[in-house]
Amino acid sequence: MAATTVPDKTTRRHAGRGTAGPKAAGGRGGLSRKLTHNLQAYGFLIGAIICFGLFSWYPMVREFIMSFQQTKRGVTSWVGFHNIKTVYHDPYFWTAWKNTGLFTLYALVIGFAVPFLVAILLNELRHARAYLRVLVYLPVMLPPVAGALLFKYFYNPEYGLFNRILKFFHLPTSQWLDSSHTALISVVIAATWMSMGSATLIYLAALQNIPGELYEAADLDGAGLWSKIWHVTIPQTRLVLSLMLLLQIVATMQEFTNVFLMAGGNGPENSTMTVVYMVYQYGYRYNNFGGAAALGLFLLLVLVGFSGLYARLNRNSD
Amino acid sequence: MSRIRYRRLVAFALVAGIGLTSAACSDSNDKKDDGGSKTSSNASAGTPLDPNTKVTISVDCMPPTTKKPERKQWLDDIAEFHKTYPNVTINSKDAFPCEETDKFTAQLQGGSETDAFYSYVTDLQQVLDAGQAADITDYVNDKTVPNLKDIDPGVLDILKDNGRLYGLPTTNYSMGLIYNRKIFQEAGLDPNKPPTTWDEIRADAKTIQDKLGSKGIHGFFEYGAGNQGGWHLTSALYGAGNTVVSDDGSKATFNGPEAKSILQTIHDMRWVDNSMPQSAGKEWGESQKAMGAGQIGMYLAAPDDIQLMVQQYGANFDDLGMAPIPGGKTSLMGGNDYFFKKSDTPDQIKAGIAWINFKFLTLKKGQFNYARNKADGIPVGLPQPFFFTGQSKATDTADKTQYATVPVENYKSYVDAQVPVKGEPPNAQKLYTVLDTVMSGVLSNKSANVDKLLSDAETQANQLLAASQ
Amino acid sequence: MAEFTPQNRTLISSAALARPRGKRIYWTVLTVVIVVFTLVFVGPLYWMITSGFKSVHEVVQNPPTLFPHDPQPSNYHTAWTQLKLAKLLWNTFYYAFGALAFQLVFDVTAAYALSKLRPVLGNVVLGAMLATLMIPSAVLIIPQYMTVLDLPLLHVNLINHPWAIWLPTVANGFNIFLLKRFFDSIPNDLMAAAAIDGAGPTRTLLSIVLPMSRPILGVVSIFAVVNVWKDFLWPMLVEPDPTKQPINIGINSLSQGVPENVLIAALAISALPTLLIFLLFQRNIMSGLTAGSLKG
């Protein structure tokens, strides 16, 4: 019977039979019992299977099919590689990829490093820990629209809070969201503020699990602060760090909400147009769903690469 | 219809691998024709709705709660409409703004629009592409829409495809320049002599900036996103006598010396004179908010903005003036209309037409009830809509003059200029998205390369046009 | 777990901090951290709440005011009534907890069946479900949207219906993964004992598995609610009717029609419910989240 499909642990196999055992032990009636058992099991599965089927498996197939189709005046026809060529030759195709890449890079430099450093800092403090943890997590609780529109006000070059503060200290001001040079990084800073709480908490928990003896041993070797971070902290949290890194890459490559809310989507000179925003633009601005699907295929290929890496690391961590 | 075909194709592809069936194509074509002939073969289509008919229709674009008088009038009008048609139930849905391009597309794809649905007049092709518009040619005549003969044929033509009519106009506008007379005065400019060319706009904007910049007032405002930038650039090009696409709609024509000079002027206003805000507009409504709060001197606009700014954003009628579009060669004419959902029953279409006729196309009723508008504090005397001709136009003008609440002389130069109007380009909203990038380029980048921006936009526009052929 | 145990040895030893120089540095750093963190994380919220009380003019005034000169509580009232925030908030909760209910029922039963009942081809199903983890949701936005417009076989249009938000959340490979792993760790002897007592799979699930699974159910629940609460693009596409939108979409689409100060007041109101819930239950929420994410 199929209860034995997991190859690894004999104990599990044995126990698995144990569940079905008392029923299956009936000899001649075994077949119908097995049938009942399977029917029952699929009864438990059916809700999830339907939902996965409708909203994951079928759309995947459809994504491929749509990439090769066009609909005009309610008539759909096969167009071969036309959609793929169209989006590939879009003058902003590479811009969108460049932006997505830059966005991911900034998100790594800022969105990945900042929470880790904050976690290390908080872990060293002996006071006000609960207060500080709550503070860092507070923005995570804001609805995205509140966080994004709030930063839109702060970033306004003329009356926004940031430039006023910079002016007060006689520092150079910035165009923030209104310049193609700074728009993307402005979005990343805001996004980091909004979401760094979760990552910080995860790092904090990981730091807590580092055995204290390792630091003591490092002390005995006369290691400095940086050396301890480099030789103890980072290696000891490597697994969590690498998982978070990949999660962050996959998440930022799908960025939509913040660029949509803060930079009007494509931003100055298309400088915040991510690939996902371009998918959206093809679908809902250009009314070209075939093109949107074709662009989605490109994104799929790239992201599956990253997710594959993620899955592998995940398996290793098991 | 597309959905049925999708299903077939998907099923087919799943079973037999990816293959192509011409049968499926012709099949759905037949279906479409069937649908068409069903409506046109309806012998009674041309008669007005029988008041005894029991029918329910949903209609969108009811004024939202933020627009109190308009909302009250809408509800009052439904009540009055009910007296004539006691069995017609109108389910209104509110929204503000009534149409956003992205949501409108999503709505058409989903077939989730109301039975009679609001749109920009530029949307006909998209609505037809989505297979969502009912052909109302046989329903519209001088019995169902008594003022039909006086509606400007140019306006109705925009709502026609292959000679068939799909929508009824509710308003139309022609673009011009809205300016703040008070700011002009304070800056030492003559409020009765608004600028008429881009050079004059630049000079006046600079004067305003130099005199009033310290108070946070800017000379000019422009958009770089939300299709607003593209819409304004198109208006500016029309003003210069240019087009943005060729007559057959196959090629982009906006890349030329006029576009370069206009964009260069805007760039210089932003970066050389600093007479524009440092933040380019991103969403519809920002220029209106800024003008309403007295923070900007001028921007390109349609006349109905004046009403909005006074009612929503605290402006005074006396402060607002309207001038013709700079250049003055042609003026972009746009407007709004209602389409009818393809799946409507004939009675629903008739009821919808009866309601729209009552609310938007009957003199002294609905939107043309100037006496009521005056009492409710809704401005009377704005040069919009202007789709009536002949006797209706004469009556309308007389009524407007009688109840005028706005300083009509403030719009004199706009009205007197009589700039010939020109409809929006085909695939307008797509082109506006493309042109947004050009605008945002000159507004956000001091060293913007206008030539490159225009040629990139041209490439992209040509692709979009080719895809829509 | 994840609670701080003060005696834990960290990067810097307590002995080093006890020295006079270490003490001085420590207290300086601590003060700076508390001040900076308060400014960075509470400052924006303070600005939001106070600006909601300011006049349109004062909001953009230069230099900004620390307190509203002439507080206008009416902004909050206007925001509440004109943007129909009560309705938007209600919609959000409705979608979030509906999604939670569907995920708890369908994903828990599915993971239970895959972990303990192990039907024929169960592993194929599991593999197909986990494979969806490789496909990022944004890629499928367009075909998913087309599917919701017209469900295959059933031919129902889910637009403007809560199902359009609830059902797709069930197709969450991560939930299945978390739950199945947890169920795998429940000793099968327990199940066998229940079976000998004559308990069917349903009773075993309800009386043995679920009571033992509280921690993982807590994690899945928090993720379920937070995901719906944070989602933007999908609800924007499938709930176009203004009366059915969740708060994120509703406020954004109405933002153009109201003055700045009213909009800021609306943002403050929209943030309030979750901030309050968080402050009340912060201990449980934070420890639950860290535990869950580490497991994942």
From TrEMBL, chain A:
Domain ABC transmembrane type-1 positions: 97-310
UniProtKB keywords: Cell membrane, Membrane, Transmembrane, Transmembrane helix, Transport
Predominant cellular place of this UniProt entry's protein: membrane
Region (Disordered): 1-30
Transmembrane spans: 41-58, 103-122, 134-155, 183-206, 239-263, 289-311
Membrane topology summary: Multi-pass membrane protein
Subcellular location: Cell membrane
Pfam families linked to this entry: BPD_transp_1 (PF00528)
Entry annotated with the keyword Membrane: yes
InterPro entries: ABC_transporter_permease, MetI-like, MetI-like_sf
Family annotation (PANTHER family): ABC TRANSPORTER PERMEASE PROTEIN, DIACETYLCHITOBIOSE UPTAKE SYSTEM PERMEASE PROTEIN NGCF
The family this protein is said to belong to: Belongs to the binding-protein-dependent transport system permease family.
Protein name (record): Sugar ABC transporter permease
UniProtKB/TrEMBL annotation, chain B:
Span list, region Disordered: 25-55
PROSITE patterns: PROKAR_LIPOPROTEIN
Any matching Pfam family: SBP_bac_1
Superkingdom per UniProt: Bacteria
InterPro entries associated with the record: Bact_solute-bd_prot1, SBP
Signal peptide, first to last residue: 1-23
Keywords linked to the UniProt accession: Signal
Protein name per Swiss-Prot or TrEMBL: Extracellular solute-binding protein
Organism: Actinacidiphila epipremni
Automatic annotation (TrEMBL), chain C:
Main location: membrane
PROSITE patterns for the chain: ABC_TM1
Stretches assigned to the ABC transmembrane type-1 domain: 89-281
Domain of life from the UniProt record: Bacteria
Localization annotation: Cell membrane
Keywords: Cell membrane, Membrane, Transmembrane, Transmembrane helix, Transport
Membrane topology note: Multi-pass membrane protein
Matches recorded under Gene3D superfamilies: MetI-like
Bilayer-spanning residue ranges: 25-49, 93-114, 121-143, 163-183, 204-229, 262-281
Family, per entry: Belongs to the binding-protein-dependent transport system permease family.
Name of the molecule in the record: Carbohydrate ABC transporter permease
Native species: Actinacidiphila epipremni
